[in-house]
Structures are given as structure tokens and as C-alpha cells.
Design a protein that fits this description.
The chain is about 40% helix and about 25% strand. The chain has about 250 residues and is of the alpha+beta class. The protein folds into 2 domains: about 60 residues, no CATH class; about 160 residues. The chain has a 9-stranded mixed sheet. α1 runs antiparallel to α2, α1 crosses α3 and α2 packs across α3.
Length: about 250
């Protein structure tokens, strides 16, 4: 049995093992914290005397995930993998600069344009992508890591990018990762609210029949483009040029 002085090191070691294993795949799962907590809780109840409170397990899980995130899912590694997949369907430009309405020069991670725009209502649309190492995000109730990320994307959505103009910006896995931490109603509100401000999501998901791993652009809850099935309703029916003022 694990007692005072031995509980924390044992729980941390096991939590780090679980977090590393969970982060080996680039899935939509928020795994990290929740999976570590759930598995540690069983160990905690069976082996720890006295058991630690669940709040303490969350703190251990967060530290484990922060450490594991240094090894798996670094921002540059994630962006390289995703952009390599997208390069089969899009022209890729990395580190594109533009002028924000305040006059400040900003640089986004990537802007992509379809190699074949025949299924798109807007010809040669430009889509911005911003990456973050979301697996290391703090699971605290204020959700500041997410709101800072979305706010940054909104700044880009109000930036006149060189050679592209004003564009829609997609956070990589930003809403899907958040949705698995908060209530579905709050997530639905966030998705639609930020969509009105020009911020969508590039989500790793499953699509097609039979189901296959796919990257999916979506905006305000509407699918725009799928790696498996190509242009969806958003691409076919929406004008992908940014609108300001009356909507």
C-alpha cells in the first residue's frame, strides 16, 4: 500500500506514463488530463492510504500532461505533420505576414489555398491556420489558454494579409479539445460566437464511409472541407470572403 511520502511519487510516475501513451496519437481526444485522472483514481482508491482527493489528482494529472506535452505534440511538430497532409490538396504558405487594422504587423502560422477549387463557391479562397500545443493547456476553470488562443485567431481574422487580404482563420483542434473539457452548450456557443468573428477550426476527426481519419475545416459548426470527402456544404454554399458590419 502507498502511504504518506510514497503516494505522490507513485501516482506521478504512473500519471506520466499514461499521459505519454495518450499523447502518442494526434487525435481529437482531450485525453490528457481526464484520462490520467480517471486511471489514477482507480490506483488511488485501491493502493493509497488515505486516498488523495480528486482535486489533488487533477493537479498531478496536469503536471504529468505538461511534462508529456514537452515530448509529444510540440507546436512545430504538429504543424509540420498537419501541413504535410494538407499539401496534397492545398498550396501551403507558412509564416505569412499582414497588417492589422491597428497598423501592427502580425504573422500567422500558415495560409492555404485549394489546388483544385472546382468544388468551392469562392474561387481560390485563402484559409488561415494557427497552431498551439493544446495538450499542455491548463485545465483550470478560467480557460484562459483557450480564450487567449481564440483571441489571437480573431486578431488574425481582422488582418489584411499580404497577397490574401482579410481571411477566415482556423485554430487547429481548438474547439474540439475545449468541447471535451466543458459543457456541450458552452462549447456550441463558443463555436458559433467565434465563427461570427471569423474564427473556425481545423479538426482531426473521422469522416466518410467507412469511417477514416480526416482533417476537417469547419466554421460555426458547419463543415467546410474534408480530407476524405473534399468540399462540404460550407465550401459549396458560402462566400469565403470576410464580411464586416451587417451580417
Amino acid at each position: 500500500m502507498l502511504t504518506e511520502g510514497t503516494r505522490y511519487p507513485a501516482l506521478y510516475a504512473e500519471g506520466l506514463r499514461i499521459a505519454r501513451e495518450a499523447m502518442r496519437s494526434d487525435s481529437t481526444s482531450a485525453v490528457a488530463v481526464e484520462q490520467v485522472v480517471d486511471l489514477l483514481d482507480a490506483m488511488n482508491q485501491e493502493q493509497c492510504v488515505p486516498p488523495k482527493h480528486r482535486g489533488e489528482l487533477y493537479e498531478i494529472a496536469y503536471r504529468c500532461c505538461k511534462e508529456a506535452a514537452k515530448e509529444f505534440g510540440q507546436e512545430k511538430d504538429v504543424s509540420d505533420r498537419v501541413l504535410e497532409r494538407l499539401s496534397r490538396h492545398f498550396k501551403i504558405q507558412e509564416q505569412v505576414s499582414g497588417t492589422h487594422w491597428t497598423g501592427r504587423r502580425l504573422t500567422i502560422d500558415a495560409i492555404v489555398t485549394p489546388l483544385d477549387d472546382s468544388g468551392w463557391k469562392t474561387k481560390s479562397p485563402s484559409l488561415g491556420i494557427e497552431f498551439k500545443n493544446f495538450r499542455g493547456f491548463n485545465p483550470s476553470i478560467d480557460l484562459k489558454d483557450y480564450t487567449k488562443w481564440w483571441g489571437q485567431c480573431h486578431d488574425y481574422a481582422e488582418t489584411d494579409f499580404d497577397g490574401h487580404g482579410y481571411i477566415f482563420v482556423f485554430s487547429y483542434n481548438g474547439f474540439s479539445h475545449y468541447r471535451q473539457r466543458g459543457s456541450s452548450s458552452l462549447a456550441a456557443f463558443a463555436i458559433r460566437f467565434w465563427g461570427r468573428l471569423g474564427v473556425g477550426e481545423l479538426e482531426p476527426t473521422l469522416d466518410g464511409y467507412p469511417r477514416q481519419e480526416s482533417l476537417m475545416f469547419s466554421m460555426s459548426g458547419c463543415k467546410v472541407w474534408s480530407e476524405v470527402t473534399g468540399p462540404r456544404d460550407g465550401a459549396k454554399n458560402w462566400n469565403m470572403k470576410r464580411k464586416f458590419g451587417s451580417r
